[in-house]
Amino acid sequence: MSTVRVKASTAYDVLIDEYSIDEAGAVAASIGGDAAFVVSDSNVAPLYLGRVKRSLAASGFSVGEFVFPAGEASKNLSTYGSCLQAMAEAGLTRSSLVVALGGGVTGDMAGFAAATYMRGCRCLQIPTSLLACVDSSVGGKTAVDLPQGKNLVGAFFQPSAVLIDTATLATLAPHFFTDGCAEAIKYGAIADADLFSLLETPLVPGDARLARVITRCVAIKRDIVQADERERGARMLLNFGHTLGHAIERESGFEITHGFAVASGMAMAARACAKRGLCEAADAARVASAVEAYGMSARAPFSAERLYEAALADKKRAGGVMNVAAMEGIGRACMLPLDLQDFSRFVREACS
């Protein structure tokens, strides 16, 4: 059990096994609000929505809900608009509390709805996937996708609290447990060599190391977000593996899920960094081996040309420059600004 305090534009606590989801009402009551509105998806709602709603009601909240079809394909303007309409029909005000109950897609979309409804209301994140626990529920990035790329419409909007109950991870399908492990590996690769070493022995569901790993990942992200909340510098390092990873996701029609795509993107980016002398070949090999130990691929099933074209919509592109998170060694990273011609070479190096 641990609490990580995030002191961003809004200060809040990330509560890791301090409360169960059956105590969500107590956490919500500490935030306050005239009503609560739970956003969840069709996979998570049957498991946990009733329990969270009962807890909220027991703490005195009137409770509404919005449940959408699970999957990245729902993270779009249409679903987001339907969520806002449901919030308005429920009579929510600026003082109401949106509760994001689910994985990364739910957290991103519910957070964005909270950021924009009446120009902003409160949000409690309750992540139920490992990916959301170690990464997306913390830091205030909220967004939906466009056909042209991932997360192109969104806002920086910090939650009022994050409630992590690791017992919910027991219901994750094995694929999605592994999916979240990729983001944990990322934190080790860019910021903590000891964490990376720990993760070279794969995590498994029910692993005694889970709470420790989640706490460390959250603490690393806390430190980076506090230094650069709006992603103008150091926070870009959190995108290690994501420039190529998002391109892989897009080219697969999101059949390749986020963590699996990022895992490939990390191994490929590390390979290109080694070829450029930014890191040792042995470090790039360790990243590839770690990814493969979890059953993920160290390569992409698409050509360098397709990945390059898909990556041009990346948010880290600034005009004719692509800002790529690069690895200098296990636990050390830097930003590599590349003109588009050099970025094209980087992608070819990553794929070779």
From TrEMBL:
It is an enzyme of class 4 (lyase). Binds 1 divalent metal cation per subunit. Can use either Co(2+) or Zn(2+). It is found in: Cytoplasm. This is 3-dehydroquinate synthase. Keywords: Amino-acid biosynthesis, Aromatic amino acid biosynthesis, Cobalt, Cytoplasm, Lyase, Metal-binding, NAD, Nucleotide-binding, Zinc. Pathway: Metabolic intermediate biosynthesis; chorismate biosynthesis; chorismate from D-erythrose 4-phosphate and phosphoenolpyruvate: step 2/7. It comes from Slackia faecicanis. InterPro entries: Dehydroquinate_synthase, DHQ_synth_AroB, DHQ_synth_fam, DHQS/DOIS_N, DHQS_C. It catalyses: 7-phospho-2-dehydro-3-deoxy-D-arabino-heptonate = 3-dehydroquinate + phosphate. Zn(2+) binds at residues 183, 242, 258.
